[in-house]
Design goal:
Peptide Methionine Sulfoxide Reductase, Chain A; two-stranded antiparallel sheet; 6 helices; single chain; globular; 6-stranded mixed beta sheet; alpha+beta
């Protein structure tokens, strides 16, 4: 039996429901948890507090993955092509610092890979990439009703209007990385 060593990726690219739904489709992803990171307010933030913009936190997902199946670099490419990394503090109708594009690295190797991926992808965008690259300090798991949101609410208006088209794009661009 092979000894699996799992790794973590923590990113934010707008509403965490969207990002979570994308990563739940990827081979090698074991778990995706929606949460908050990058803020400066003391204590565990609530969704309402984060949405106020006053905590400094971003809506993020923490992805547990098997690097023998999917690489950190591949996950970053999927992330960067599943949202607009050229809009500052905004994804679609969602606006505010809590919706910023951000990669929180867990170690120096992840930081270097993130810098390389952003540099390589920059030529594909008409505008500059504004994705923040920062060290992960603390990850706070979001409230239970945010977990597996798309899977539990596919008929909701937001899911139909925003998440379903993102998943269609994912399936077209990264078909070889999808779970069967």
């Amino acid at each position: 039996m092979k000894n699996e060593t799992l790794e973590l990726l923590t990113v934010g690219g707008g509403c965490f429901w969207c990002v979570e739904a994308v990563f739940n489709e990827i081979k090698g992803v074991e778990k995706v948890v929606s949460g908050y990171s990058g803020g400066n307010a003391p204590g565990r933030p609530t969704y309402r507090e984060v949405c106020s913009g006053l905590t400094g936190h971003a809506e993020v997902v923490q992805v547990t993955f098997n690097p023998e199946v999917v690489s950190y670099e591949d996950l970053l490419v999927i992330f960067m092509t599943s949202h607009d990394p050229t809009t500052l503090n905004r994804q679609g109708a969602d606006a505010g610092t809590e919706y910023r594009s951000v990669i929180y690295y867990h170690n120096p190797a992840q930081k270097e890979i993130a810098k390389v991926v952003l540099r390589e992808l920059a030529t594909y965008y008409e505008r500059p990439i504004v994705t923040e690259i920062s060290p992960l300090e603390v990850f706070y798991e979001a409230e239970a009703y945010h977990q597996d949101y798309y899977a539990n609410n596919q008929s909701a208006g937001y899911c139909n209007a925003v998440i379903t088209p993102k998943l269609a794009k994912l399936r077209k661009m990264h078909a070889d990385k999808l779970k069967s």
